[in-house]
């Protein structure tokens, strides 16, 4: 039976978040530099976007570059930024044609000017699309995001815009980078690592976590569908008893 036939179209996750891991190991296994893995990881992104659109996932977020990644060797960071610019430039027409909206979260001001310009152009071009929203986390870390939200709330308190006792979960969430997105129902991490690496820590409080040994450059449509099938086999209780969900 085709994997697609095993998926319940009534239980598609609204938001899937993906930690793309394993590019370096994939390259080393082939006797190549890490950048070779990053270059080949682009196809995995394309395959995942197409698979998500195929089954009707409304929101898809990729962890593309963390704030910690700025500490990597300069040559690797430079290659990653160039890859990002080229990928955005090359894929924007197809994304727009297929109804995909692009957005980005993170400390975008830290990106090189050329990268930021290309990103802003792609976001503008695809802004009216509604089939699938693809969010790219760039120069992002969850601790940075939470600290940034806390700072902006503190500024509003200091300016007399809000009172401390008005700060609740909803207000805090409205100051997060992801305020326009639903929390992820499913988070996928490739390469066999069993951690979340400072990614969407607030937002994945009740997300289902799926770990696969597949290295990111090898990740394809079938792997994404397998993750969805595994997700649909789980019972999500959100702190309630199973009997309360009936």
Q: How would you explain this protein's 3D organization?
A:
With 246 residues, this protein is an alpha/beta fold. The chain has one domain (10-141, 183-233): Undecaprenyl pyrophosphate synthetase, CATH 3.40.1180. 41% of the residues lie in helices and 15% in strands. The chain contains seven helices and six strands, in the order βααβαβαβααββα. It has helices spanning 23-29, 34-55, 74-97, 113-125, 142-158, 169-174, 221-232; strands spanning 15-19, 59-66, 100-105, 132-140, 186-189, 208-211. It has a six-stranded parallel sheet, with helices on both faces. Strand 3 (100-105), helix 4 and strand 4 form a beta-alpha-beta unit. Helix 1 packs across helix 2. It is globular, with a radius of gyration of 19 Å. The two termini are 30 Å apart.
Which helices and strands appear, and what pairs or packs with what?
Blueprint: E1 15-19, H1 23-29, H2 34-55, E2 59-66, H3 74-97, E3 100-105, H4 113-125, E4 132-140, H5 142-158, H6 169-174, E5 186-189, E6 208-211, H7 221-232
Parallel strand pairs: 1-2, 1-5, 2-4, 3-4, 5-6
Helix pairs in contact: 1-2, 2-3, 2-7, 3-4
